[in-house]
Amino acid sequence: MTNLIIGILLLLTFFAFIYFVMRGGNIMIGFFFMALLWTIIGGISYKVAINDIFSQPALDYGSTIVVIIFGSWFGRVLVDTQIAGSISEQTIRVSHKHPIVAAILVCIVTAFIFTSSYGVGAVIAVGVILLPILESLGLPKNVSVAAFVLSVGAPMYVNIVIIKQIQLFFPKVLYGSKYLGYGFAAMIVQMLVVVIFILVHAKLIHANEEIVEEKNKNGDDILDKKSAPIYSYFIPIMPVFMNLAFGWQPIPALLLSIILALLLTGNMVSYRHCLKLINSTINKSVSDISGLLVMLFILTMFSAAAVKNTARFSAILHNIIPHNPLIIAIAFAILAPLALFRGPLMVWGAGSATAAVIAGTEFFNQYFGFALIIVPAVSMAVSACVTQSWNLWALEYTKLDPKKFLVTGVPWAWGTCALNLLLAVVMFN
Length: 429
Fold this sequence. Notes:
Layout: H1 2-22, H2 27-41, H3 46-53, H4 56-60, H5 62-80, H6 83-90, H7 99-113, H8 120-136, H9 141-153, H10 160-166, H11 177-200, H12 209-225, H13 238-246, H14 250-264, H15 271-308, H16 310-318, H17 325-334, H18 351-361, H19 366-384, H20 389-398, H21 402-428
Helix pairs in contact: 1-2, 1-16, 2-15, 5-8, 5-10, 5-14, 5-15, 6-8, 7-8, 7-9, 7-11, 8-9, 8-20, 9-11, 9-19, 9-21, 11-21, 13-14, 15-18, 17-21, 18-19, 19-21
């Protein structure tokens, strides 16, 4: 009876947290108070709370934070060595006689870049080049922005920075062939949805030959002035390749990729210049994710409190959460829009509580549980929500109405969620 009462109180605070976040409350503060409340309500002893909730989890998460920092640094190096920009600008060379093919190519290039690159700074650096190209090809603003951010979101299924954050809840999920097989499949599914999205809007693509030709000329000028050599274009996929081909861990794979990026772009010719670029990229990359790092440390505390309280509400959840993988996948697919606005299916928002509960109940194997959480987070929240930092930047940059953006992108993101959740049922059960 005591467990039932405590379980109900814990679930009430869970819903209060969801309400708090969706009303615009600070997520980091919310995580901290949830950790406190679940510690107190759960009757966790003082010593256990200090050591096992507010100390050790953050210390244990340090190794993951290191990977996130290196991943962010690699993304900044791709931008500042002009590799990301040069790959993007090469798409301008596609003939204006084939605007639909060109638009699809732009989206594929975007996805390729962000398999390893990460951060709002990297998205902005690429977006200021590619968004005007998409519009010049005849895509309306809402279509071009939706296609671009969906393409940025797709590779997040394999991006080490994203994976490491969600591994907090599912530590048995390894960044290796088992998960990456699903990750790349889910990425391809989302990119196929992007291609269909562009084809459906093909009638709106009216190529203006003069404008596109001018864009091509301008793009050639940019490439002539400052661009990375073509033989450096494989660098964005290098960390993932080293992991799959040779079993390398993320940090050495990222370090090798950073060194090759600097070497192949001629930034190691001068020691002073190389050192200046290294210092600059490190400063920018850490600055890009500084708030995220602190939030993740606080999140480890809440996650630890949730695990300690699993027994308190497992009896309630045992009768609520479907035990059949297909049924819960269908339920998550139907409810996928709840990932919008940092809702209860958004792991970097109110959904962190959902992730903690799914992981804590152990009703499913961790790979499937991981998929349940990452799919709505990536395909809905990252790819179609205005609360995602780079999506908000894209709206402001193009002067696109947020409502129009949501109406355009959410249905396609929703469909992607359904497909990738069903894919998880097939691959992980």
